[in-house]
Design brief:
alpha/beta; D-Maltodextrin-Binding Protein, domain 2; about 40% helix; about 20% strand
Length: about 350
């Protein structure tokens, strides 16, 4: 009996030694807008004999708050989706470990905002004014070319924007006006917003209401505002999802100097990550071309990696601003609430 038991034990040990290792798991906490193809995630899982667990936890601000609150017992290994409007808060909370990924060599320096490599740039998108080409052609009016145009009499009542207190693109557009007009001098960003209020610019709570409810093109003609705050990627997205092919995009973005604000989204390894090696591999994968080339038609942002090829519809119809407005991310953290409150005093009261 003892011999049989010993043989059985030896057999089990041999089988265990020959069996493939069980997949490890990397947990990725992200915002609700995270979207990437199943094939892309499967490619990582197969390459690393791993399972990727995506934890979507709300908008970027909520996700960051949860990551900070759970810092002593992190809910995930990797955090993705913190952008440059929240970056200073994430770094100050000291929840991210440094990781100098070799893939950073393929990313432009102007997207790298953390010299300690706790937050690594994954993608970017420019928040800009968009306009309905057909509406302007039908009404014989020249579309706006810059921010200043919105305050002119001929554009009275034509624009819808989002509340920066409740909308990410709304905050980004407010930052564009701060970067463009400044806070001091003869004409500041507050003077500009006063002029917009007097020119009957409409402010709504979020992007969906602005674009699909008020914008003439996005609402299918139900709205009455042919100018909306959206993204430079919105025109190619309209082409991509159109039922009929377009020779040119039906909308366009205003990308003149200082007219847009560039949002940059980052990924970082959370302190206390259960599998540091696999977390690094996932970060490398997010910065690599397989993941990067999947970003535009899933999350409608531009890939950070210079070697990632753009989809044809983006390459043909997207306009990338050469000179977006600049506001230091540390200044955003220090002044965000005051800037939003000052905006509300003008626009909502």
């Amino acid at each position: 009996m003892k011999g049989v038991t010993m043989c059985t034990l030896v057999g089990l040990l041999v089988l265990a030694a020959c069996a493939p290792p069980q997949p490890a798991t990397v947990r990725v906490m992200t915002h609700d807008s995270f979207d990437i193809s199943e094939e892309t995630i499967a490619a990582f899982e197969e390459q690393h004999n791993a399972t990727v667990e995506i934890l979507q936890a709300g908008d970027a601000g909520v996700v960051l708050n949860q990551a900070v609150l759970s810092r002593d017992n992190p809910m995930a290994d990797v955090l993705y989706g913190v952008d440059n409007t929240l970056l200073s808060r994430a770094l100050k909370a000291d929840i991210l470990d440094a990781y100098d990924s070799p893939l950073l060599a393929e990313i432009p320096d102007d997207l790298k905002l953390d010299p300690q490599y706790r937050a690594l740039p994954v993608d970017y998108g420019d928040v800009c004014l968009n306009y309905d080409k057909g509406w302007f052609a039908e009404h014989g009016l020249t579309p706006p070319a810059n921010l200043e145009d919105l305050a002119k009499p001929e554009y009275r009542g034509l624009t819808v924007v989002e509340n920066p207190a409740t909308s990410s693109p709304g905050l980004a557009f407010l930052l564009a006006t701060i970067g463009h007009f400044g806070q001091t001098g003869d004409y500041t960003y507050l003077d500009y917003w006063s002029d917009l209020r007097d020119n009957h610019v409409l402010a709504v709570e979020g992007w969906e209401d602005a674009y699909w409810g008020q914008f003439t093109y996005g609402s299918g003609g139900e709205g009455d505002r042919p100018i909306v705050v959206s993204y430079a990627s919105s025109p190619p997205v309209e082409v991509h999802f159109a039922e009929e092919p377009f020779e040119e995009a039906p909308t366009a973005a205003v990308v003149g100097p200082g007219s847009c604000f560039r949002q940059i989204e980052f990924v970082g390894i959370l302190k206390g990550a259960q599998n540091r090696e696999l977390s690094e591999a996932w970060v490398d994968f997010m910065l690599g071309t397989t993941f990067q080339e999947d970003i535009p038609l899933h999350m409608f942002m531009f890939p950070a990696n210079e070697n990632a090829a753009l989809p044809e519809v983006f390459a043909e119809f997207a306009a990338i601003p050469d000179l977006p407005a600049e506001v230091d991310f540390a200044a955003i953290e220090a002044n965000r609430e005051a800037w939003v409150e000052a905006w509300a005093e003008i626009m909502l009261r």
